[in-house]
Amino acid sequence: MRPSGRKLDQMREVSVEVGFTKHAEGSALIKMGDTHVLCTASIEPRVPPFIKGSGLGWVTAEYGMLPRATNTRMRREATSGKQGGRTVEIQRLIGRSLRAGVDRVALGERQITIDCDVLQADGGTRCASITGGWIALRLAVNKLMKAGDVISDPMLDPVAAISCGIYAGQPLLDLDYPEDSEAGVDGNFIMTESGKMIETQMSAEGSTYSRAQMNELLDLAEKGIAELTAIQRAACA
């Protein structure tokens, strides 16, 4: 029995509220159980210097957690004058994951920045950020297309992410914090709707795992990604 009472292959309840903020070109508040992340997309008529003049667009991301997103207050990273290593790693992951689902030629020479702000954390914040970030990105691109600034749809394939792990010897889908903190094996799976892999992060925590167990987690991840991409499409319809 999972601490949450869910079945082994059952995700937490997922809800999405689009247009959550007034000013961003695309925004979505995604809730995966008690993990809540606000994702916004901002369009800028510029690209980083290393691709300037190439005709290619760019998608990047920033990630942060509010001080009371967790059960004890965290100090704002801005007060320390630098981002932590975990923050940098996660926002790079979000950016490269979302770029994998975008035709950067069709996007044109502009940058879209996805801001992911964790309002409340209960495990899987990077996965929720990627899944919600794609929705915000899709909505922003819709505005570009409606305005005629982009002719061909640059969004190739929905991108989503889900965590899976081995807890008490059992493979689980969509770990919440009590499961994640005690899991013997923990993994994050980023995939497209068509089933293509973008990135897999797996590690054993004081244990090991077999090839067969890895395949079980991949099967669970595919199930979760299919559910999430269906939610993404419904939210953007």
Give your account of this protein's structure.
It is an enzyme of class 2 (transferase). There is one protein chain. By secondary structure, the protein is an alpha+beta fold. The chain has one domain: Ribosomal Protein S5, domain 2 (2-Layer Sandwich). It has helices at residues 77-80, 85-99, 104-107, 125-146, 177-182, 211-236; strands at residues 14-18, 26-32, 35-44, 58-65, 111-120, 159-167, 170-173, 185-192, 197-204. Strands 1-2-3-5-4 form a five-stranded mixed sheet. α2 (85-99) packs across α4 and α4 (125-146) packs parallel to α6. The longest helix is centred in the last third of the chain and has 26 residues, at 211-236. The chain is globular, with a radius of gyration of 18 Å.
Primary descriptors:
237 residues, alpha+beta, Ribosomal Protein S5, domain 2, five-stranded mixed beta sheet, four-stranded antiparallel beta sheet, 6 helices
Helices and strands, with pairings:
Blueprint: E1 14-18, E2 26-32, E3 35-44, E4 58-65, H1 77-80, H2 85-99, H3 104-107, E5 111-120, H4 125-146, E6 159-167, E7 170-173, H5 177-182, E8 185-192, E9 197-204, H6 211-236
Parallel strand pairs: 4-5
Antiparallel strand pairs: 1-2, 2-3, 3-5, 6-7, 6-8, 8-9
What is the name of the CATH topology?
A: Ribosomal Protein S5, domain 2
Distance between the termini: 36 Å
Widest sheet: strand ordering: 1-2-3-5-4
Which architecture per CATH?
A: 2-Layer Sandwich
Question: What is the assigned CATH homologous superfamily?
Answer: GHMP Kinase, N-terminal domain
| Major beta sheet summary | 5 strands, mixed
Helix content: 25-40%
Low-confidence stretches: none
InterPro entries: ExoRNase_PH_dom1 (IPR001247), ExoRNase_PH_dom2 (IPR015847), ExoRNase_PH_dom2_sf (IPR036345), PNPase/RNase_PH_dom_sf (IPR027408), Ribosomal_Su5_D2-typ_SF (IPR020568), RNase_PH (IPR050080), RNase_PH_bac-type (IPR002381), RNase_PH_CS (IPR018336)
Binding site for phosphate: 86, 124-126
Keywords: Nucleotidyltransferase, RNA-binding, rRNA processing, Transferase, tRNA processing, tRNA-binding
EC number: 2.7.7.56
